């Protein structure tokens, strides 16, 4: 059985818990899934204009804690963020960040902030 990671999700300026009700901001994701797929599978809408192909930056998120629970940033992701002038070490494209097992990690949960305004 694949490991699961708890993801705590906030929208910039307001937590999803405040926006939609209790427990909506805590989701479980299976290792090997992209962060984008984990969010979409649990009903959390996140723009992804390129279809999750690292050709835009609409699915970018800010990783507040637990970055070690995501795959390392690859060159294509870094280049895309630099090209769009939004690169920071803690900004990730949700379509490129794979959930990793917490087995060798100090953190047991991942905290992210969606960098999109509330709908």
TrEMBL record:
Source species of the chain: Chthonomonas calidirosea (strain DSM 23976 / ICMP 18418 / T49)
Q: Does the keyword Iron-sulfur apply?
A: yes
Query: Family per UniProt?
Result: Belongs to the adrenodoxin/putidaredoxin family.
- What cofactor requirement does the entry state? [2Fe-2S] cluster
Domain called 2Fe-2S ferredoxin-type: residue spans: 3-118
**Biological process according to GO:** P450-containing electron transport chain
The UniProt keyword set, sorted, is: 2Fe-2S, Iron, Iron-sulfur, Metal-binding
| Organism domain of life | Bacteria
Q: Which is one GO molecular function term here?
A: electron transfer activity
Q: Say yes or no: keyword Membrane present.
A: no
**What's the name of the protein?**
Ferredoxin
Query: Which Pfam families does the entry link to?
Result: Fer2
* Gene3D superfamilies membership: 3.10.20.30
What PROSITE patterns does UniProt report for this protein, alphabetically? 2FE2S_FER_2
């Amino acid at each position: 059985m694949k490991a699961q990671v708890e993801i705590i999700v906030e929208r910039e300026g307001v937590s999803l818990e405040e926006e939609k009700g209790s427990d909506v901001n805590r989701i479980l994701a299976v290792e090997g899934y992209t962060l984008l797929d984990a969010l979409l599978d649990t009903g959390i809408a996140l723009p992804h204009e390129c279809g999750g192909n690292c050709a835009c930056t609409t699915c970018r998120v800010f990783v507040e804690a637990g970055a070690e629970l995501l795959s390392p940033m690859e060159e294509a992701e870094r280049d895309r963020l630099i090209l769009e002038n939004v690169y920071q070490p803690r900004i990730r494209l949700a379509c490129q960040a794979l959930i990793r097992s917490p087995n060798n990690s100090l953190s047991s949960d991942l905290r992210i902030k969606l960098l999109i305004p509330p709908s």
